[in-house]
Amino acid sequence: ALELIRRMPMEPDEAGWGALLNACRMHGNVDVGKHAAEKLLSLNPQDSGVYALLSNMYATRNRWNEPIVGIGVAKVLDSGHPDFKAGDLVWGFTRWEEFSLLSAPKTLSKVTDTDVPLSYYTGLLGMAGLTAYAGFNELCIPKKGEHVFVSAASGAVGQLVGQFAKLMGCYVVGSAGSSQKVDLLKNKFGFDDAFNYKEEPDLNAALKRCFPEGIDVYFENVGGSTLDAVLLNMRVHGRIAVCGMISQYNLEQPEGIHNLFCLITKCIRMEGFLVSDYMHLYPQFLQLTLQYVKEGKIVYVEDTVEGLENAPSALIGLFTGSNVGKQVVVVAHE
Ligand code: NDP
């Protein structure tokens, strides 16, 4: 990438370096990413977004011949760090391996509450949970009685967004990719309605059926044709939190969105976010969510596979929807 940039007749502008940094973050290319970040900071030293992208890139970097980084729960076997001792349970950025030597304790937190399944710290009480909490509360700014739509609604993030929305007194509809998932949404997570987007020939018509008066809040997990149909069904002053666009990640060429004009005509606010910018909310999120779980107000469905050797197929399964709930891989039992 850098060689190509050197051969260009002029240097990229801020948007170009930003796009490169984001691509490096997604692909874990730390060396090129650092270069793009330096260029961006030389153009605008106050750009705090650059630091957020950099820290996210470091935290999640994957390199050839190194184990993949992911959110995991682990037991400390030995420690030279004063904050951690043998026997402590921790969660955070671990690796796809049975034993790890982790030199960055800042990416690990102690498991404080062991009354709940430890696997919850990979999802419900970890990054997925905080993503749902921060994205819904901070970006969607929901109000009681508002109409909320969630895509990939039965997944690690979506199932929680729907439940937080119900607890707030909203009308909530979710979409998912199988009848089993639709059943979970309606009968386990308490969504008011749900549909299988794979069986809907016309997503616009499906949304009109579920939201005859329109959508106030859309929690975006998938992108593509779903986003296009949602835009047509948003209400004036609606909010869209762009959490993910999983339908686009593996495409050579991302699909175009045709209905963005609705952002103007309906005065919609659409905003992307990274959970890493909301870590300061973790303590309040943990306290509230633990309370809800213990009171039975929030339930969480996990899809567990045994053995590290099954992790690659579990990861690939996220892109075909084979996971039902938060995908968890058990590497070892306590
Ligand atoms: P999920 O547990 O929801 O698993 C992914 C699901 O996406 C699949 O089960 C499948 O469900 C659905 N899916 C896969 N491919 C497509 C497709 N082509 N079209 C529509 N749906 C598809 O994942 P998570 O809850 O962990 O993540 C949800 C989203 O949030 C992702 O986009 C992820 O990248 C994003 N994310 C963003 C974060 C942030 O900081 N912004 C942090 C964490 C996650 P189905 O069967 O219903 O199709």
What brief labels describe this structure?
334 residues, alpha/beta, three-stranded antiparallel sheet, globular, binds NADPH dihydro-nicotinamide-adenine-dinucleotide phosphate
Radius of gyration: 21 Å
Mean pLDDT: 92
Structure summary, number of beta strands? 11
Percent of residues in β-strands: 15-25%
Bound molecules: NADPH dihydro-nicotinamide-adenine-dinucleotide phosphate
What sort of overall outline do the alpha carbons produce when their principal axes are compared? Answer: globular
What string, H for helix and E for strand, traces the elements in order? HHHHEEEHEHEHEHEHEHEHEHE
Order of strands in the sheet with most strands: 6-5-4-7-8-9
Kindly report how far apart the N and C termini lie.
44 Å
Query: Helix amount, in percent?
Result: 25-40%
The biggest sheet, with number of strands, parallel, antiparallel or mixed sense and barrel status, is: 6 strands, parallel
Are there runs of 5+ residues with pLDDT below 50, and where?
Answer: none
Number of helices: 12
Structural class: alpha/beta
